[in-house]
Amino acid sequence: AERALAIARSSGIDWAMADESEDEAALYQDLRHALMENLLHVHFQPVIELKQGRLVGVEALARWDCPRRGSIRPDRFITLAEQTGLAGELTRWSVNAALREHARLRALDPDLRCSINLSSKAFPQAGLVEQILDAVALWDTPPASVVLEVTETAMMENPELSARVLQRLDHAGLRIAIDDFGKGYSSLSYLKHFPVRELKIDQSFVRDAGSDPRSARLVSSMVELAHHLGMEAVAEGIEAEGSATLLREMGCDRAQGYHLGRPMPTESLLDLLRKTA
Ligand code: C2E
Ligand code: MG
Ligand code: MG
Ligand code: MG
């Protein structure tokens, strides 16, 4: 981004564009600093088991409140990290911060699972598996309580490498989930070869399932697909009680969404666990 800025300046490209690249260059510096100095934080969204309505897990979601810029959406800073070579730092931060905070939650519920998002740029990183397993050992986390979320697109960018990485993580006892299932444009062939334990049905299907019969049938087919393959089905984006009921009737195992619980700081989740214990 700095080079782009220099080029923009020397070639007299219009000011609006130069301002934008200057902004991106500065944002990159701030993000790098924030990752190195551990200035990001984790929020946790509850994952609910639908049959009994119990809290069984949390998904770790990165938050960045930049002192100068205010809070910046994850979609923005994660994309920036991926484009500027900071994906490795982001992965290291995400895994460590999530497992550190998860350890505090496990003190109240030892069985609570923790889902962590892996960037599509994580797979080519040297030492990725060791890095994750080191963090699991450091925080004394039961491997089976760690869920690593990857998207179809991320896996298909480099299927052989992804398969090898995921096999090793699976052998170590961690669980692999497909995030945003149904949204990526890719074949289902990876489901044959990859050690996937969960399908997370993308919120775009779940949101429309209450009003659109076609979406509802798609969702129930995805639940069946998961079960036929011996995987668990997780619905994302439950925003109303109606969707929770519908998904429960379809036999969906677990769900997340604003109606069931918003992403929240560790302290709030600790309060929630104390109340439900
Ligand atoms: P995701 O993994 O699919 O996470 C779900 C996103 O949907 C989260 O957005 C969550 O706040 C939002 N969400 C949850 N329930 C609802 C709902 O009922 N309605 C709606 N409209 N949205 C809901 P968020 O936190 O902005 O994160 C966006 C994406 O950024 C995540 O999508 C994930 O792909 C990525 N991300 C977040 N944290 C990390 C991280 O630490 N590392 C990496 N690599 N990616 C991350
Ligand atoms: Mg996710
Ligand atoms: Mg998702
Ligand atoms: Mg996503």
From TrEMBL:
Transmembrane segments: none
Domain EAL: 24-277
An example Gene Ontology molecular-function term: cyclic-guanylate-specific phosphodiesterase activity
Identification of the protein by name: EAL domain-containing protein
Full-protein interval shown: 134 to 410 of 410
